[in-house]
UniProtKB/TrEMBL annotation:
The lineage of its organism: Eukaryota, Sar, Stramenopiles, Ochrophyta, Bacillariophyta. Residues 303-336, 376-413 are annotated as: Disordered. This is Fe2OG dioxygenase domain-containing protein. Residues 118-232 form the Fe2OG dioxygenase domain. Residues 308-320 have a biased composition (Basic and acidic residues). Residues 327-336 have a biased composition (Polar residues). It holds the Pfam family 2OG-FeII_Oxy_2.
Amino acid sequence: MSSIKSTEFCSCSSSSLTIIDRPNKHLQVEIHHGLFSGKRKSATDSKNWYDELLSNVKWHRVKYKSSRFQSDCETPCYTAFYGGRKEYKPYTPVPDWIKPLIKEVTAHLNCNSDVPIQFNAFLLRLYFDGNDEIAWHTDGRTFLGAEPTIASLSLGNKATFQLRRMHNVWPCVNGTASTEGSIDTTTPIESFVLQDGDLLVMKGKTQQYWHHRVPKEKGRGVRLNINFRYIMPGVDAERGQMTYYKYMVYGDVPIDQDPPSWTFDEIMKKKGGIMNFVKGGVKRKAAAAAAAAAANSVAVPLVGGQTSDEKPQDEAEPKIDPLPATSKASPIQGPTSNLIPDIQQYLSSQNDIDEAVFNSLPIEIQHELVTQRKLQNEPHTNEQTTKQCDMAEKKKSKLSGRRGTLNSFFAKK
């Protein structure tokens, strides 16, 4: 039977629906486009769920000894896990702040479903940048049932999601992990670009015949993912729940101890903060700059005599997203205009900094970066250095509560 692929309007909410139904290949996938995008937020709640997750979740980078690979391993992205069955340990209750989102996703999927869909286990992943990934795997588990419905909600930056068909989804040769001979090379890989707010749903026998992954991607910004599952009651449920918490939360840390965890702000500092953002972690696309220019009409001067069609900013400073998805150039003007020579010198001396990225930063952050670099390069006596450090500390303390500084740029909003 040939592949059936269609895009239709989902009557339950304002999202379009792509359906891929290939019974002969045991592939059944739906993509509900833009269901919870940052612009649309939520149909029943005013929360922006991307910001909610960044503000509330404590993330784990789990380390464990792999019996399958006989080596020390670490999860290739940050994870968190809530729920499961209350009668088994470990168990972390689902936080109240995320329950409205779970309720709406469940209601949306049940709107046109003949079989009731429910979820009780929730895996969260943070792909900080394009180096984070999830390798080929299946979500098929005995404690999820023979044909589980797995829902996956994407928030933030777009990412590629791929599926490949397998002759054996659990390949094992002579006791070691191997995929040799297990991949169905006659069936092309299915590849999708998941955007902010897209809900991907895998149904039927998909987990029995298909692997999926999120590969590394150069230049990808922060992406959040929530994976919805249902752990069924039964003899294997306790073992299954323990497995989830081991590989998503505790690793080799005993379950009676607190595993290492970080907030998003702490991860930003750990990753190098603003310098990691400027230095090649995220590259601004020319299309984003062109779109910003097309949407505005007043030209303002930029670094190096360039101009932008961006309208002058309002006196009230806009809210700054922790990792903006698109760039809007910040004009050097007013009292900061005397920085232009220093900025030009700074950019010419930093080969690994994209000028478009630098221009997209708030003026105060540009000022701090240039000033820091200038202090590092200029020779000073010990007395001068001490005095400058004292002044810098006082300035840092004074600015700590203002938006636009290095620290507050990535702070919770």
